Amino acid sequence: MRALTYHGKMDVRVDTHPDPAIVNPRDAIIEITSTAICGSDLHLFDAVIPGVLKGDILGHEFMGIVVETGRDSTLQKGQRVVVPFTISCGQCFHCQKQQFSACDNSNPVENQDLTQPLYGHPMSGAFGYSHLTGGYPGGQADYVRVPFSDVGPIVIPDGLDDEQVLFLSDILPTGWMAADNADIEPGDTVVVWGAGPVGLFCAQSARIMGAEQVIVIDHYPHRLDLARGLGCKIIDYSQTSVLEALMEMTGGIGADAVIDAVGMESHGWANFNLVDTLKQKIGIGADRGGALRQAILACRKGGRVSMPGVYGGMLDKFPLGAFMEKGLTLKTGQTHVQKYSHDLLRRIQEGEIDTTFLISHRLSLEDAPHGYDQFRNNQNEWTKVILKPGMEKAKTTTVKAEGSHA
Amino acid sequence: MDHDRPDPPARRLMEPMMVAAAMTLGLGALAGLAAYSVLAPARQARQARPRADDAPGRTAKRSRLGDYAVTGKTVTIAKPRAEVFAFWRDFSNLARFMESIEAVTQGADGIQTWTIKAPLGASVAVTTRLVNERDGEQIAWRSTEDSAVDTEGKVMFRDAPAGRGTVVEAIISWKPRGGEAGRLLAMLFQQDPTTQARRDLKRMKMLIETGEIATSRNRKEAA
Fold first, then answer.
1. Do A34 and A138 have their domain in common?
2. Contact yes or no for B20 and A147 at CB 8 A
3. Would an 8 Å CB–CB cutoff place B10 in contact with chain A?
4. Tens digits of residue pLDDT in A354-400
5. Last residue of a domain, which of A276, A311, A332?
6. Does A23 touch chain B (CB under 8 A)?
7. Which CATH number characterizes residue A158's domain?
8. What is the ipTM of this complex?
């Protein structure tokens, strides 16, 4: 099969690999019909996440057709499924508590030894990411082996296009859980840092959950336009003094809840981000936390901090005093996708949630390296890239980055 | 193409470990902690202060009993105690999750011979005798006098609180072949009892809870 393969920093290629097969009783093999490039794939592309090896197949947002099932799989050949990016057994202590992304049993034991000393506990398995999360081959490929296929994949009813449901794999539930973690109350102002796909879904979710106003912060005009199209207010941090503006836009109270949908590769030079960037460049496992620092300062006393953005290492200059003295609450974590799948599918079917508005490009799998390059370097217009293994090479379709949706 | 000539398995394993190690070591904030953990045991040994906390003895910074090395590991399995005990008591199950066990043969008088993988492709025959068994609670064994390795151990089972299943606690002491240097060498090859106990218990948990052992391999045979 063909698959997008990591070769090194900013070097991904489509190579030929052996087809996957059933290995464990609960496995299924999925033929991929659609897969997407995630913002967190760019962390791998930029080589700021450790444990990604040459030859690894990337991709953790994917869906397709069941073509083979193991003895204990509950799926049937021919079913159309979306697969959560987190691999979860469904039976351990954490899965039973619906903390699916904390599954004890999905990361092979040899790989658990890698994150135990770093984080105190081993991480769970995930598709197409680092060997810290199991080194599972990902879904930017013709086929993928799905372990625990009786727990993760959600069967899609007829009548829904791939693009309406593909993001159930990661970014839609990730945005939804981040808004859920913000514990939104009536009258709340929710502020979202980052108008990437996750940030936009955070904003959309916060509005559905009843926030009085949602303010989205970024510096790419087209991405801010998408946020405005969702009924949000926007702040361009390259033009506006963010902290002052947020106080003025909230009657001098500050944000009731703040959401960091940026993560470890924060842009800009303020908030100590320059120092973080230099440390990251020389490879000492530092995260860039400019957005998070600002979010904590912007959060009102007794407010809530929700952090869906990805971090991997250590952060200096964390405003711990502000965090403690204001009595803030922080909730974060990889997404417990399976907890939200069915509810979100229902909301898509009922037309409450549209996930297609942020798709900007559709490429053949063979053109995936071009997609990585553009998604990284042309962030204003390339908001979300979908890869189609069935599509002919170089038949890219583009939704032009036009102006406002408002 | 590169995928046709995969990196040797050892290198594929070592690389992320080295990345993890470098990441940990490279952090200035942790240097102090590292220095503390190296220096503290020596200081503690000099003072010979009696232990005054509730932690298991094997977690002391000096965990040796004379020439014996001691290791222990605890895991909680979300299944009833009777089921977990019965799984272990069926010794044919052990080779399913113990990576280093090549074979177990049952002899007369409760004597068992374990063929265990050792560093550098060697194997060691260990003969043990059950010395204590309490149904649903404990299984203890000791090596016989003619065993190639001098070792004893026990595995204990107790109910976890609030219906969380069963706590399984394994303690193994052994006289390392080649003394302390031999123990470090085995550790380097990830074939020391500490590494193996940690991984084996996690594999057992996977097998009992989910019916299978997680792997990221895409095919049964090496691709």
1. yes
2. no
3. no
4. 999 999 999 999 999 999 999 999 999 999 999 999 888 765 666 55
5. A332
6. yes
7. 3.90.180.10
8. 0.90
